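pipeline/complex-builder :: batch 7 item 3
reading input block
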Amino acid sequence: MHGLGHLSHPAAAAAMNMPSGLPHPGLVAAAAHHGAAAAAAAAAAGQVAAASAAAAVVGAAGLASICDSDTDPRELEAFAERFKQRRIKLGVTQADVGSALANLKIPGVGSLSQSTICRFESLTLSHNNMIALKPILQAWLEEAEGAQREKMNKPELFNGGEKKRKRTSIAAPEKRSLEAYFAVQPRPSSEKIAAIAEKLDLKKNVVRVWFCNQRQKQKRMKFSATY
DNA sequence: ATGCATGAGTA
DNA sequence: ACTCATGCATA
C-alpha cells in the first residue's frame, strides 16, 4: 500500500544471473524488486557494484580475485556476529531493525523484514546479498548507537479484508523423496517435475518451487563453498 | 528460525 | 522458466 520509488540501474542489471558452474564469480549481482524493500537492495547493490568495478579494473585478463575486505566471507561473518551482539545490546529486535531502516534516510533504502535481518545475522543469505546489506545495516547500527537515547516508532496499522496467504506444508515422506530426486537431478525438466509431482501427489508448481528453493539454499553463505 | 511463495529482471 | 532478493506465515 505504500509506495517508495523503484530504481533501475544498469550495473546491477548487467550482472543479474550468475554463470553457475564456471570459476567462481567475484562479481556482484543483486536484483531489485518488491515494493519498498526492493529499493534498499538496489541501492546497496549499486554501491558494491561500483566498488567491485573499480577493483576489477586491476585484474586484466587472467586474474579474477577481489581481495577487498568487504567481500571477504570472514569479514562478513565477523560483522554479522558483531552486528547481532550490538543489536541485542541495544535491546532491539530483528523486526525493529528491519523497519527502522526506513527511518534511516538513505536514498532508495526502505525497510526489510524480520526474516531478512535474521538471515543476515545467521549468514543464511547469498554472499552477494550479504555484501549488499552490510553497509546498510552498518549505517543503521552506527546511527542507533549514536542516538541510543532516541525513540523508535513504527505505527503501521493498516488492515482490510485481505486474504491471508496459506503456507502449504510438504509432509516428511514426500520431502525425503524430493531430496532424493534432488541429489540425482537438481534441475529436473518440466516433464520430470510433472512426473514427480504426480508420483508424490503434489501440485506441480509446489514441486517446481521446492526445487528452486532447494537450489537457493545451496548457495547460501553458510553452506556454499562457492563464495 | 525457516518453509514455501512472489515478482522483477534475464535469457 | 530460471535466478535472486525478499517476505508472509508458521513451527
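note: The radius of gyration of chain A is 20 Å.
queue -> next item
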